[in-house]
Amino acid sequence: MVATNTSDSDTTTTQPAPSKGIRFLLIAVVAGLGGLLFGYDTGVVAGVLLFLRDTFHLDATLQGLFVAIALAAAAVGAAFAGALSDAFGRRIVLIATALMFVVGALLAGTAQIVPILFLGRVLVGAAIGVSSMLTPLYLAEISAAHWRGAIVTINQFYITVGIFVSYLVDYALAGVTDGWRWMLDLGALPGLILLVGMFILPESPRWLAGHNFLERARAALRFLRGREDVEDELNQLHRDITDEGRRSAPWSRLLEKNVRKPLIIGVGLAIFQQITGINAVIYFAPTIFQDAGLSSISISILATVGVGAVNVIMTIVAMRLMDSWGRRKLLLWGLWGMLVSLVVIGIGFMVQLQGALAYVIVIMVAAFVAFFAIGLGPVFWLLISEIFPLAIRGRGASIATIANWVSNMVVSGVFLDLLLAIGRGPTFLLYAAMTVLAILFTLWVVPETKRRSLEQIERHLDAPKG
Ligand code: BGC
Hints:
The chain is globular, with a radius of gyration of 22 Å. About 80% of the residues lie in helices and about 0% in strands. The longest helix is centred in the last third of the chain and has 30 residues, at about 395-420. It is built from 21 helices and no strands. The chain has helices spanning about 20-45, 45-55, 60-90, 90-110, 115-140, 150-175, 180-185, 190-200, 205-210, 215-225, 230-240, 245, 255-275, 280-290, 295-320, 325-350, 355-375, 375-385, 395-420, 425-445, 455-460. The protein is mainly alpha-helical. Bound molecules: beta-D-glucopyranose. The site of beta-D-glucopyranose has 13 residues, from helix 6, helix 14, helix 18 and helix 19.
């Protein structure tokens, strides 16, 4: 039996556990909203930009800055999220993030002058960065091992839903006066629901146990599992979290041997997730389709909406397979599929298949996104919430997330220039070459983590090879 720290009284100790359905809904809502806002706020920009040119007379540089500033702020947000959430807890940081989403969206959507517009976007960007790292981590920590893969993948599912909704909203509001204000303001609504939801959900029991708040950890587990008797799990948690795990470790821990490997895996996958070209497609699909010969803008946008739907559907498939097939297998299948799709797109553009090209490109772009959605998309976010030792988990995941946002900024920033400099075919073949490297990297270092507790994963990665 675990000794109780009597000093850690908390309101959650007296809160009755809600029914199973309500609990599941709450978790799904939180998982949903962090991801939904991530997807929506990154996806909606394409539509907003068209308006800003006229309303604020932004030149090309300022338009570029408007896109880049949110991605840069996301990297900064991710940088702070880890240390803050290791020190103060996951929940309070998520509450602050929800507030930033709301304030940022309203500021940007009602802005009358450019600096306010940019300030709003910076706040939203920072919130995206924090939530992209913290939502999966919080979910991994509150889930039982056997359904952790599915629960954390809900996050990626909602990212894709957010992107899909943003495509639809852009499409619907494209002809409406001041439509951009609605596009941006709409992000405040899920932010508000996230804020309320996080007040109801408890702190991560792992974080609580790691900080010796055992009574609160017990209450949180009771709430999450919906039963009174959680002693076994609490004992297990308490045993598994080493003494070392209870203290918030110094940054220098990141250089130690047992953290080096998770760091290589996390940062490596972060970079590969972006340099294999996903956001060239997600942010610029209509341009790609027009280049391939789809003459009408509305058909290009419609094809883009179709790609968005494929992204959502295949993420649902990933959710179902994540805990049975396992992370590594899905990742490898996904990468091989991406490779084939990219090679066909690259060659398709180079040989200029007359007439048929547009169809081939649309189908292969959809295939590329589908394979990303079953592998590299969800698996990256899942693994970085699983592989770091507890004492350094927040900061480890932060570093991988920063690498992801910086790579995103670079890849989406240079995509159009790359097309001009080396041409369409070679650009996609370059992404294909990066995918080959990603396959080799996966074969070399990525472990299988399905159905293991976070503490077992920690021990496994720490063990000598073999
Ligand atoms: C990536 C995003 C990408 C999205 C597409 C996420 O996992 O991190 O950069 O836009 O997937 O579905």
